[in-house]
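Exercise 7. Predict the joint structure of the components listed below.
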Amino acid sequence: MNLVEETLKNAPKTPAQKYAAKDFQSDQDVRWCPGCGDYSILAQVQRVMPELNIPRHNMVFISGIGCSSRFPYYMDTYGFHGIHGRAPAIASGLKIARPDLTVWMATGDGDGLSIGGNHLIHICRRNLNVKILLFNNQIYGLTKGQYSPTSEFGKVTKSTPFGSVDHPFNPLLVALGAEASFVARTLDRDPKHLQVVIRRAAEHKGTAFTEIYQNCNVFNDGAFFTYTEKETKDDNVVFLEHGKPMIFGKEKEKGIKLEGFTPTVVSLKDGKYSASDLIVHNEKDTMLSFILARMSSIPDLPRPVGVIYAVDRPLYEVEVQRQIQQSIQKQGEGNLEKLLNHGETWTIQ
Amino acid sequence: MNKALKNLDEVTIRFAGDSGDGMQLTGMQFTSTTAMLGNDLSTLPDYPAEIRAPAGTLFGVSGFQIHFGSTEINTPGDACDVLVAMNPAALKVNIRSLRDGGVIIANSDGFNDKNLKLASYEKNPLEDGSLEKYQVHSVKITQLTHNALEDLGLSNKITDRSKNFFALGMMYWMFSRPLEPTIKWIGDKFKKTPEIVEANTRVLKAGYAFGETTEIFAARYEVKPATMIPGKYRSITGNEATAWGLIAASVKSGLDLFLGSYPITPASDILHELSRHKNFRVKTFQAEDEIAGITASIGAAYGGALGATTTSGPGMALKGEALGLAVMLELPLIVIDVQRGGPSTGLPTKTEQADLLQALYGRNSEAPIPVITASTPADCFFMAFEAARIAIKYMTPVILLTDGYLANGAEPWLIPQVDNLPDISPKFRTEVEGFHPYLRDEKTLARPWAIPGTPGLEHRIGGLEKQHITGNVSYDPENHEFMVKMRQAKVDHIADDLPPATTEGDEKGDLLVVGWGGTYGAIRTAVENKRREGKSVSHLHLKYVNPFQKNVGEILYNFKNILVPELNLGQLSKLIRAKYLVPAVTLNKVQGLPFKAVEIEDKIDEIL
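Solution:
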């Protein structure tokens, strides 16, 4: 047993507690702008956490820099506000050292996909059991309104007065390309759906990547309103459910059908097509996951929202632990005396 | 044939060939056999950054120098007595390191027209008389290797590869070393390919027998064991010692070691060595980059691991921001910079001491970090351990500076008694009552280490300025200045906890030579030589650069002159002048090579 295990075993116990959302609220004043989408994300996370039955002291929220990265200060768990872009590396180190902890990460489109893009792809491919919430508002908020790596081509901002000539990242495709084992998308302005996806991410064993469309009402107000507001949402979003055909529209009158590899919208009203012609969502289908993620870059197609992809594969920290156990079984517990004296030695009288 | 056996006090040999000729391996074998005979020794591997530069070229030459003797040996030797040159390029690059009258053993088979041209020789130097101030022995090493193996039916390529063992065998004969340790090593190393074991063993023996029977070597030599402190010894390189020092710190602290690292020359061997020792629960994480290496280690330290990261200059530059984070978080972290020639990519495989100011100041704002240094390869063990001790006790990142010369150089090491290493285990905070993340220990000024998983101690830390005691985010102007001073005071106060600095030589005198890091051996040799001549010169070697030990000023003021030799343009000298207001004279060398003792001796003569 190392000193950490020994200390935690002997630490004074707190009585087992049935948590409520408020138990996850820290004593710090929340300092996001009034009306920011971050409030909803914080509230839904605090609402879901009690259901997980994990002691608060075993949870750690880690972040980088940016508006989203203030998240850990507001959670009454352990928290670590890191440096710009490096949250996935900090989380990796912590999770490898302490697989017993539940580790969540809050990041944004700038923090996660620009300065921290490298670390984000590597945590996904390694598949550490870390839950990543990427708040995508398609703008730099904390630095006051420059375009971000997810801003659309032509975006006029303070740093692009003539429009951005950057082609944007598709966060889902980045995560899928990096072989994340769980990839989902949800909406800040749909609390119920947000809760469902957070719950799914929490249950997943592996790196769970969730893109959250988040409104920055100061610098990029309404960027996602087509997908989040009552008037337009039904016709522009398809909510994914595993095993169910992809149907959307105000009166559930539209569906997504595959023509070759290309998804197309078909009407279910004119009798030509029925639900059986549509794509049936399968979270474990790798090829389908790429097609669904790509739909966001094709105009006139609805945005898929929900769990795009979820598969099981070996966990990095478990494999590390396995090698250690095997090594101990084979060679015995490390003995410093033996190490210093092994191999060629000689004695001087 | 009975040949004269001459006694020598000390010898320096340099093995040189193509980077694919196995010169490093040959040198290491000679080193380990020589160590086992009880000689004191010091080595200098000198190899190109390219893995296999085109054969026969000047930039592809790989060398390995060993200085051994029956007296105390502190440097790899100023000049070689024997140069083994496998081809013309090896001769050309290394001839300047051979003393006048020194011995050249050349593989004459390597001196063909093509290789001569590649080395820009117009005529064959072995034949044109240009080497007449040396004793030149031309040996058909390649041919003799083929002869020894002709009945084995091996390919030419494999046969050629054994020729370094012929050279090694000759040197074993010339300096009266036994073959058995290397034969055993060959058996272990190549056990999966018995034909290679057979080939290398045969060629080694053939080289030895050639020495015995040939007419060309008139004499062989004996170097008696050195007088060393009794005890059990092993040979160790700086990188091995660093890795083992970290393991020892893990054992003595009760903390699992976590190394986050990105491969970089010349530090990678620490990562390699640690990744072999998983039964010590060592976790090595080959990160996606230098920044991930250090930030993962900070994450691990937050969780209660002994976090470490290893790198060299360019990697150190990338870690700058994360070092500032570690200063702000006040978490223990060991950062090891194996210095190499710079700036930028610089000279990856060559040594230098030019990261000292980077280690002290290479971060934004006021970000004080203790900086300590290792003086010899084996000293890396103790200083890595010391880095961990300071980091844990004071809740701070600590930078340990070693260098390429220490990292790859080897020396005999009196194996320490494990029981003599102190207990450095921390006390994690578990008491809920009165807990504040930045409420400091009155004596050490360290904040409590409260690890996730501890009930009731949930708290948040981060890179934003902390409010004194509570650790909450604070933009208060007075608090910021208070915290800046507090972090500085914490590091400054570590001086109270350091052993006093000691001089070699006298405590007063005409000249004090002040060094740090890997120049120890060269300065020690130079100062001893000059003291033997009756000069009033002493040596102070600083292991702690930030903070300095408390008595350093007192020592400096006892000398009329101060000389600071460094492998940079004057960095320690700046610090000493600034802090102690003494007129330190500098001796600087930035050639990617260590000092020769004679270079320091000349400077001493100039001053005195």
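Discussion. Residues 153 and 296 of chain A are 14 Å apart (CA to CA).
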